[in-house]
Structures are given as C-alpha cells and as structure tokens.
C-alpha cells in the first residue's frame, strides 16, 4: 500500500486507555510528569550526577563497571566482543519496537502486552548498551560522547 493511500492515524484513533498516547503516562503528553521532577534540573540530584550525592552511582562510573564486568566474562576475542556489543544494540532497539507495539496494542493477535514504562525501560537499555559499546571502543568514552553531544547541540540549536 502506498503512503498516499494508507489511512493516517490520528491521536484520536487510539483508545483512551492507561497505555494510549492520550494518557498522562504517554511521553510528551501535556499531563506527563516532568522527567526532572518539579524542581527541574536545579537543586535536584540525579543518578547521572558525577557527584553521586543521590546515593546512586554516576553514569560513567556505572558504564565503566559494566564494561569491566563484560570484559572479565567475554567468551569472544576483543574484536569479536566489540562487534557483538554493537550488534547487541540492534537487539535492544528491536525490544523498544516490540514494547511500543505492545503498549499500543497494534498486534491484534496479542493485544496490549506492554506499558509505556516498559518502553522507557527498553530505551534505557539501548542507551546503556550504546555507551558500553562506545566504552569498548575507547577508554575516553565520556570525552568522545561529550564532544559529540556538544557538536549535535551546536548544529541543532545554533548555540
């Protein structure tokens, strides 16, 4: 079916269930909770803070620990381990797609099988897997990622 003959889905086409795009649980819904909390980014401690003051490990310390653990338990040589970690990203992205399909009930045979919390969790797995793969490529993953992010922000926001 061509794109022009395919019926367009509108948000009003989705049922108003707890897992539908019209629910407060759906990402970017006007009623969605602020992911940074009510205080925004100032004054609140996040597990991603390098200070670790929230009691949670910081992002890059956790990535380093996961990388070390994987290196200690890898069954493949270094080059194959890198390839397998990059391929693992495809698996994780597929799990995001499966969770979205399940949260929207788009498989008539299975119905609604996931929640938007499942989608968020799977997206986190993608990020973690990508950062561990980056760390596998370079011990300077934090700096490489930071420089790349800065470039994307400048290109996108012009600042």
Automatic annotation (TrEMBL):
Biased composition (Polar residues): 1-10
SUPFAM superfamilies: all-alpha NTP pyrophosphatases (SSF101386)
Gene3D superfamilies found in the cross-reference section: MazG-like (1.10.287.1080)
Start and end residues of each stretch annotated as Disordered: 1-57
Compositional bias ranges of the Low complexity kind: 11-26, 34-57
Protein name: NTP pyrophosphohydrolase MazG putative catalytic core domain-containing protein
